[in-house]
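Predict the holo structure. Ligand: 2-acetamido-2-deoxy-beta-D-glucopyranose.
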Amino acid sequence: MAQTEPNLDHDISWFLLPSYWAKMVVALISFLCFANSYDGDFVFDDSEAIINNKDLRAETPLGDLWYHDFWGSKLSSNTSHKSYRPLTVLTFRINYLLAGGFYPVGFHVINIILHCTISVLMIDVFSILLGGLQFSNKGRRLNLAPKSSLLAALLFAVHPVHTECVAGIVGRADLLCALFFLLSFLGYCKAFRENKEGHTFSILWVLVSVILGAIAMLCKEQGITILGLNAVFDALVINKINLLELIQKLLHKDKLLEAINYNYYYSLNAWLLLCPWWLCFDWSMGCIPLIKSVSDWRIIALAALWFCLIGLICQALCSEDSHKRRILTLGLGFLIIPFLPASNLFFRVGFVIAERVIYLPSIGYCILFTYGFSLLSKQAKKKKILAVAVLGILLINVMRCTFRSSQWRSEEQLFRSALSVCPLNAKVHYNVGKNLADKGNQSAAIKYYREAVRLNPKYVHAMNNLGNILKERNELHEAEELLSLAVQIQPDFAAAWMNLGIVQNSLRRFEEAEQSYWTAIKHRKKYPDCYYNLGRLYADLNRHIDALNAWRNATVLKPEHSLAWNNMIILLDNTGNLAQAEAVGREALELIPNDHSLMFSLANVLGKSQKYKESEALFLKAIKANPNAASYHGNLAVLYHRWGNLDLAKKHYEVSLKLDPMAPGTKENYNLLRRKLEQLQKKGGA
Ligand SMILES: *[C@@H]1O[C@H](CO)[C@@H](O)[C@H](O)[C@H]1NC(C)=O
């Protein structure tokens, strides 16, 4: 006796495409949504996770990846974020190796392909989730739902909230996690596949599913939730357990109360799924003001969320219709379970809302949406209008996706787009300011940094950057105020201590400056720039030995610190230690052979030591590397002048004066030479 559950496809007015075509359509449309992100820059977190991540370079042994976090720091270190995603890092490393450098295109292409693959896979997943069960004396088998699964997969493929995962390269973690999560789920379903003999159970597929789940976990921690999901699937479809009794046993009422604090954030997450219009790369730092009293109208959102959720949960648990019960429970399961690690229920996480954590939960949303659509189709008379409306929603989403992924292509657009979504988020203003400053637009950056500090008066990084710019614009007093405040708030902020030192140095408060530099070095052991600045302070104070030691320290920590080398050579030269200056110069050029400023400094020293030939060669090499430096030509002219090669001296004085007519000393030297040449001519004529 065969008995078949109703299947969503009975009610739905929607296309029936052969499976092959359905997959092609989903692949194409998901590609269309995000294809334009392929040539985007590395933006936002990409610089920390990719460009500055030493785990991508060949020097780092592959084995180390297992002991490092997502950003390449040791997991055991205090500064580690403890996010463990070695397989994702491995794929970055392969991308880097194949491209032979930091070219973002390859990284983006892989992300786009991953999303397309996942979207196509969703057809199979939804077929299982939305399909009905068929009972016969041979056991149960799934009655797949190709029409509704196509709709749900399309909804998933075009959801704009996915832009962050696809267009942002670090979103790879979520994509890979989702991919293996789904493969694990499909493997689990396969383990309990029915064949002609009835119910079978394949331990091999369970094993495959567990391994795939573990891989998902090594791509992103969220992957662990596959265990919960498989358990729900197991309970519902395979063992038909009544969840209500189970939950009653597990949950105490006060535990629910505990969660209330975070509920507003949950409702915002839900809102992002329903209406992905406001998207932002960062939702933290004041973006969403806390609800402080019950009279806050936003309580409505919370109430609405629970009203809907409780409604759905009741239906899922108590409905007469077993098919409905199962679809709703699986929909809610996919919506809620992958979200649990981000919910703050079990452990505190560092963010309130992040679009990328909704990648997997959006599967649940697609299930519920499709189910709702099938219910409406069953009742409505105008099925065509309903189908057109859904098509309209899909189309709007496609457009939203392409627009949003174009914003993800450059940091400037990404950060600016956030200004209207999260005007209260200090981090948004900070990032817009930082982007402007990096591009050299300091005066525009000031405005944004000020706003960031105004919104978050304890934002030490904004203070440090603002202080730094003000320092360069010689607004020293305000710079000092900001930097002092920053180190007061965060006493181990080394960069702020160094900048404060530079300001105090400029204000001629040398003792305080020295103190600040040493404090900076105390908090950051390897700080070559700080040693460099310390050296300049000692040089100003005529403490030559200390200055040389400090610069030496800078070059020990950073052998290519050209400024420190140059300062050493010049100081030794000016104090008459020509032999030492020459030795340091040669040592420096050995380490950075293509640095023309070092060639120039050493050439000057050699000229003074009357090693004219070698000096000339170095001057010429420096000029070849940097032909438009007036001083290079001027000093070479002086060399020829002294050496007695007057024609070449004249030529280079003239080039130098052409490049910089005001260069000190050159004019006088040139006039001296001209008089000498005239006298020689008179003598020759006589
Ligand atoms: C240079 O580094 C050494 C070793 O770290 C340290 O003891 C010394 O004080 C430093 N000197 C200067 C002037 O930076």
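Residues 531, 534, 546, 549-550, 553 surround 2-acetamido-2-deoxy-beta-D-glucopyranose (CB under 6 Å). The beta strands are 3-4, 132-136, 139-143, 194-195, 198-199.
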